[in-house]
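Posting this for the archive.
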Amino acid sequence: MTQEINLKELEKKAFRSYHEDGIWDIFLGLIMMAMAVNAFLSKIGVPELQTMIAFIGLELVAVIFLIAGKKRITVPRIGHVKFGKTRRAKLTKVKIVLALSVIFGLVALALGIIMQGDSSGVLLPLAWMVNALIVFSVMAYFMDFPRLYIIGILYAMVLPIDVALHEFGIAYIIFGIAATIILVMGLVILSRFLRDHPLPAEGVEL
């Protein structure tokens, strides 16, 4: 029994170490920055099609960074870990929740921008906020990743603040500030990770 508990603790510690590289933080910061760029391009009158292409392109860059970062930065330094069925089940739930959240969030954001001049638009920022808080809290719990609570709050705040300050037209600044906070946090953590986990000597396998 004690051995089983120890193995679970070791697995939990190994799983948490995968989030001490700042990669997920930077990924989420890039996603938010894509929203800031989207808002800025809309403000300066860039056609919707071009704005959407730029937005999707930046989102793809974020996804590529997440995948490549884990593969090229994290794995070479701390190696591969094969997790048990319970942990894999948790990861599956996170992926499903994240996918649904992205779809819901993008729809809410698009509708929110369209309905900003309408009083009924208040419901969409509220839906955005609730969705962000729930999704990031679920992810933080299942991924043993406490920083997601903070990032979730930042994500939850941006759209309601944007709607409240709509007359000033500073959506890109609001999203940009939140994105910068998340990116700086991620870069600091990544820097610390690179310092504490140098690449192993050539010929040494993890």
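The chain has one domain: 21-196. The mean pLDDT is 81.
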